[in-house]
Design brief:
By secondary structure, the chain is mainly α. It has one domain. Helices cover 64% and strands 0% of the residues. Helix 1 (7-25) runs antiparallel to helix 2 (32-50). The radius of gyration is 14 Å and the shape is elongated. The relative contact order is 0.24.
């Protein structure tokens, strides 16, 4: 897997994951939507940890900086 998630993208993903998990944990969002928020938070954390997003591959997006040789 070639990395396609850049540093700024990682920071945004971690922030959004924390917000989604906090909303579900505090009871602001309940029921099925809370479960969805937990799964979204987990997906965002995993994609930022591995620097790879499958959807980015499908759409040809790459937010990593290109190293000049």
């Amino acid at each position: 897997m070639k990395a396609n998630v850049g540093n700024t993208d990682k920071i945004i993903r971690v922030f959004l994951a924390m917000v989604a998990a906090a909303l579900a944990y505090t009871g602001t969002v309940t029921g099925t939507l809370a479960t969805v928020f937990y799964f979204v938070a987990a997906a965002l954390l995993l994609t930022s940890a591995f620097s790879f997003c499958g959807l980015y591959t499908l759409f040809g997006i790459n937010t990593c900086k290109v190293k000049q040789a």
